Amino acid sequence: MASSNSLMDSLFQRSLEDLIKGLRLGESTFISRSLEEIRREIKLTDLSTKSVALQKLSYLAALHGVDMAWAAFHAVEVVSSSRFAHKRIGYHAIAQSFSDQTPVMLLITNQLRKDLNSSNEHEVSLALECLARIGTDDLARDLTSEVFTLLGSSKALVRKKAIGVVLRVFDKYPDAVKVCFKRLVENLESSDPQLLSAVVGVFCELTAKDPRSYLPLAPEFYKILVDSRNNWVLIKVLKIFAKLASIEPRLAKKVADPVCEHMRKQNVGKSLLFECIRTVFSSLSDQETALKLAVAKIREFLVDDDPNLKYLGLHALSIVAPKHLWAVLENKEAVVKAMSDEDPNVKLEALHLLMAMVNEDNVTEISRILMNYALKSDPLFCNEIICSVLLPCSRNSYEIIVDFDWYLSLLGEMARVPHCQRGKEIEHQLIDIGTRVKDARLELVRVSRALLIDPALLGNQFLYPILSAAAWASGEYVEFSKSPYEIAEALLQPRTCLLPDSIRAIYIHSAFKVLVFSLGAYFSAQQPTSPPLAQESTSSGHSMVNGFTYNSISSLVNMIELGLCSLSGTIDVEVQERAKNILGFIGMIKHEIAEKATSQNSETEGHRAIAFMEDVFSEELGPVSSTAQEKVPLPEGLELNENLEGLQEICREVLEPMAESDYSSDKVSFSVAKLRIRDQEEASSSLPPPLESSSLLAEHRKRHGLYYLSSQKSEDHNDREGNDNNTSNEYPPANEISVDSFKPKKKISKPRPVVVKLDEGDEPKRKPDASSSNDESLSRAIQTALMGKGKGKEKEKEIVKENHEMNVDTENIEQSSRREKKNKKNGERSSKRSSRRQRGKEASVTKPVEVPDLLL
To answer: Clathrin/coatomer adaptor adaptin-like N-terminal domain: from which residue to which, for each copy (predicted)?
Structure first.
């Protein structure tokens, strides 16, 4: 009965073609119904039905992402079939779904071994392909002997795939090198182009991981480079020599000649020609003849109409540009012409090459050309142009920038490019130049003012960072402004409501700086003066005080007060708080502004508050290194607990007394005046703290001493500071800077301003990769195999030499007397010692892996 049901299922079973036709009808529930059928069919004992179900499941997993891990055991059952069609479906499913964590992985070891030893080359091929995809450490170890046998197979198909599997086996089981490496090297002498291509491909991948281990095989690769006529084999060999020549410079001189011969051929393939050029540019650039020939050949790619070849030519120039810029300059016309190409990849490579030619003499001209391209380019390429200009200009603290006024104006022009989306980079450079270059702050304020008064920029969200930097610079360096009133008006214009709240907070803070500066200039003057900061003329009827008349300062204060009144009720807490703080400050000093015009008394409370705020904003900000936080040493006695769950208990102890206190929320009121009076009372009072608070603090410190610094050390440190006030702090400042002037090589009309640089550079230190390489064991195994091969040859030479010495000694013994025999014995001892020393020298010479003398 069961057999009849199986027969019926197989007769009416849907094939893979039926499944595809059903999927094309677009039924939403077809996949779920098909999976139910597959689950039912795959459990049947008939291998034909099971294999078709597994084939459909593999198709759904590949195209629709259906999970097929549950069918792993059924795939093993299909593989065990004696029919090749079933095996192919089973191996395909295993290669598609199996991983190192598959539970039934161990069940296929014997089946793989059986198929690898099969007389059918197609079954062997299926097993090798499966091993190359899912090979684990255990599979590679258990099947190394079978792979070794197949490396010497007489069937080209089997041997070719066995050579490809070696790469996976070596990676998973490095000890397989001891078994298979010698036979793999022997395949380098094969005359079959398919086998040679396979083995060279394997060595190309191995050399990319650790080229030094394969230097002894340079003679074999050199022979293939000279004798082979297969372009793909030659390309792989050139890739190998590009790696070897970079670590063994003597090899480059020998390889340069055959590489040049390939480039001089008339009908050489473009792929081989490009690989020769790339090899010369990357590893043989010290060979003048080869380099000049490669530069001449690269022009064929640059002038070709095919965009692919043109891209390859530009890419090859980008390889040689860092070391031999003259090669790019010789082809600059073709590079500039490529900027107008239709292919975006060609334009991008041309852009990178154009920026590689930038120096302090031509940066102005090249930037002007690129900005013209940016105005008429698509958004993607436009932003690539802007980024390509920003990056080299800011490298090494703007070392190629001489005229910072021009560069700041260029940054302002970039902000007005319609498709500009590099606001973050421009923001960083505007602030960075302001903190580093003092002579450029006047131009920075001018550029910032132009950006702030432009209402069209407020609607572009990509420019918000630039406006933030402009607002900060206008407030921080307001003393360089010709019209503080205009700056404040631009900062508080109604259209700023389009900005995010975080940037509006910066606008308000900058307006506060402008107000403080203007009030300070108004209140600090003892006599009427007339600098260029005047907002209104003296004909208004009031005397001008340090550039501000009573009318001008009053209009400034009224304008700021009017602009902030609407912001005092905003939802954002940061904006609301800053607006109310400034309004409170204005209310405190507003009535004293009129008194200043008639009175010279500078001891008023408002004047003291203004002087205090001027001191707050007077400290100049400097650049801070990205590694400044790492330079701060960890205080002794501080233990940083990685698991901070203990802080929850501390916070509970602190918050519970507050919650249980008798003070209600309506009785708590905060007042600046009360806080100031309380601070003065605490400062004037010399009484010790209450005993209750001291005992609570001592108890808390005793229970949670992990989070406290050592009290003894802090007391000793305070005593040392009290005894010697001139002692410097043992902790270095976070932003330790030094002024380093740049001396240009050529005489220029305008001197380069001083740029503040950090002592240890501005670039963040990159931590070395702590992860150990997985290829170290494989490299050691290959080096051992190659050195063992050399040692075997040396041992053969030593044996021949010893036999020759023994023959000579026997002849001397027969012709000498007993006395001579004794002398001869002494001589033999000395000769043995000398021969041992000579062997030691020869062994020491053969230890390092070097290129054989054949190539040198």
So the answer is: 28-513
DSSP string of 309-326, one letter each residue:
HHHHHHHHHHHHTTT-TH
Question: What is the SS3 assignment for 57-99?
Answer: HHHHHHHHCCCCHHHHHHHHHHHCCCCHHHHHHHHHHHHHHCC
Q: How far apart are CA 238 and CA 201, in angstroms?
A: 11
| Cα 660 from chain centroid (whole Å) | 53
- List, as one string, the DSSP characters of 94-148: HHHH--TT-GGGGGGHHHHHHHHT-S-HHHHHHHHHHHHHH--HHHHHHTHHHHH
Q: Is the pLDDT assigned to residue 843 strictly greater than 50?
A: no
3-state secondary structure 466-529: HHHHHHHHHHHCHHHCCCHHHHHHHHCCHHHHHCCHHHHHHHHHHHHHHHHHHHHHHHHCCCCC
Contacts of residue 28, defined as CB under 8 A and 6 or more positions apart, other chains included, come to none
- The DSSP symbol for 607 reads H
DSSP 423-446: HHHHHHHHHHHHHH-GGGHHHHHH
Number of H helices and E strands in the chain, helices first, is 40, 2
Closest CA to 292 of 270, 251, 264: 264
Please say if the pLDDT value at position 130 is more than 90: yes
Question: What's the predicted TM-score (pTM) here?
Answer: 0.66
Task: Give the whole-angstrom CA distance, residue 91 versus residue 103.
Answer: 17
Per-residue pLDDT for 739 more than 50?
A: no
764 or 618, which is more confident?
A: 618
Structure tokens given for 205: 């991948």
Provide mean pLDDT across the span 768-785. 64
Q: Which residue has the tokens 């892996």?
A: 849
Distances (CA, A) of 185 to 190, 196, 234, 247: 10, 11, 17, 22
Confidence of residue 678 (pLDDT cuts 50, 70, 90): very low
Instruction: Please name the residue that has the structure tokens 């209600």.
Output: 664
Mean pLDDT of the chain: 77
Residue range 37-65: mean pLDDT, rounded: 91
Lowest model confidence (mean pLDDT) among 16-30, 601-615, 640-654, 713-727: 713-727
pLDDT in tens, 256-269: 999 999 999 888 89
The DSSP element (H or E) to which 757 belongs, if any, is: strand 755-758
Nearest to 202 by CA among 161, 164, 168, 228: 164
Two tokens at 166?
A: 């070696």
Nearest CA-CA partner of 849 in 223, 248, 178, 167 = 248
CA distances to 18, 793, 802, 843 from 796, in Å: 69, 5, 10, 13
The residue whose two tokens read 């089973």 is 90
Classify residue 135 as exposed, middle or buried by CB count within 10 Å of its CB (0-12, 13-18, 19+). Answer: buried
* pLDDT band of 813, cuts 50, 70, 90: very low
- pLDDT higher than 60, residue 322: yes
Cα–Cα–Cα angle for 701, 706, 708, nearest 5°? 55
| Cβ proximity of 219 and 180 under 8 Å | no
Q: How many CB atoms lie within 10 A of CB 122?
A: 14
> How many residues are present in the chain?
856
Residue 714 has pLDDT above 60, yes or no: no
pLDDT for 395-411, tens place per residue?
Answer: 888 999 999 999 999 99
- The residue among 190, 189, 197, 198 whose CA lies nearest residue 231 is 197
Rounded CA separation 621/634 (Å):
25
Residue 768 has pLDDT above 60, yes or no: no
* Mean pLDDT on 597-612: 70
pLDDT at 448: 94
How far, in Å, are 468, 522, 537, 608, 620 from residue 519 at the CA level?
24, 5, 18, 11, 19
